[in-house]
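Here is a typical protein record:
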Amino acid sequence: MSQSAPSVLRIAVAQLNPTVGDIAGNLAKARHARDEAARHGADLVLYTELFLAGYPPEDLVLKPAFLAACEKAAQDFAADTADGGPGIVIGTPLKRKSGIHNAIIVADGGRILAERFKVDLPNYGEFDEKRVFQSGPDMPGPVNFRGIRLGIPICEDIWGALGVCETLAESGAEILLVPNGSPYYRGKIDVRQQVVIRQVIETGLPMLYANQMGGQDELIFDGASFAINADKSLAFQMSQFEETVVVTTWKRGNEEGEPDGWRCTDGPASRIPETEEADYRACMLGLRDYVNKNGFKDVVLGLSGGIDSAICAALAVDALGEERLRAVMMPYRYTSKDSLTDAEACARALGCRYDIVPIFEPVEGFGHALTQIFEGTKEGITEENLQSRARGTILMAISNKFGSMVVTTGNKSEMSVGYATLYGDMNGGFNPIKDLYKMQVYALARWRNGAVPSGALGPSGLVIPQNIIDKAPSAELRPDQTDQDSLPPYPVLDDILECLVEGEMGVDAIVARGHDRDTVHRVEHLLYVAEYKRRQAAPGVKITKKNFGRDRRYPITNRFRDRT
């Protein structure tokens, strides 16, 4: 270390919500955060992975004009540091002779001090960075920032086994600063902290983990940035699902005044939500950002009097405000009085607009139009699905007329086994509960009735009528129908599905948990044959470790069955 190196370093963590492709907007957001950090005496501002581009940019980085715009923004921002304020560490894609890289720049005093490239490119689950980026050609060395040697591994560089952090430590790094784009799934915070603690133990260095915040299509970035000191203690914890800039204080030397090592001595200690609250806030954030970032002024959904549409209505009001949700009840001859009463009560509790559009005439009209073609056949699922498709058409007509995005409301249990109608209840632009199993939907409904999440725009109190939670779920497509007429009880179904989808377990292992073998075989078959429907489903918030689409990529044409 240089003799003139400071013994105190104030690092601002910019836990912000960029928008993919909005390079000018992201740069403006970064500048505003730097100004805020400067007012609080920061020496350095740490931004998140690929911040100027937005993360993940996917195939946008294959477009030369996009890369050029990102690099110009990085150069312009570097020039800002000539004002004597904080230096910056910010993520951006960079095209160099070695290829297109997931990179960061370090800038101070009006110039770029260093570029560093991500070495370990993730290629699993929701990640496919090897498709568009090249790995850094060399192991990154520390960057000298005002006499302090900073190691800056990028996200996956601390997760993999390539030894990036170890190399930085051996090269003289004093602090490890990690810009991340780490998406949310249930329990992810504990996983991240264990990864960081392992690296702290191996390197003997403190690590600051800065994570992106915000929704990007299916992915939710939850923030929750934190740091671990060299003694493995939690140095600070930033909030989850909130955009914020926090200045932390780092001092060289320990409490006895010895001149070696850095320690964070001042930072926030934010509360991390429990499971149901975290899942609810992830769904709320995902819906809000999808609607706002894609320029929709409001949303519309079919409010049936059932649990799924009720919680989606609550999420919409919490995310966007009551004035931006239009709920539509579309009754038919099989719609129960309870459903009519419950849907209206739910809309009133949430304060949103509520319309009733009967579907008797369109359904009967479809039936009459098909009389000759269907002559001699028995009524069944086809005629039932006409009801769902009539409702889907009405919602899409409202969307076309008023510019409202349709929120679709199917849960993961239903989508797993194909208990949904193409061009009917599957119609829509986005599904906030797509990755929640049915029993998890109930758990979130009960939680929301007893709490109001931070940042929610909706009311307190009972927003989902208790009768909706208590009654047997039903699509109401025929007299006295319940879901359990054709599906196993949801606690049983959900456990089997979690074993098959998240666990990739075989039939024998699932049966060993106490499930009936024939039921497991049936659920497995339904799961496989519904793949073609899921390929046509709206995007939705990722909550579990393995959601449909980004994480679980099964072929539509697939004859494999585990017949053990």
About this structure: The mean pLDDT is 93.
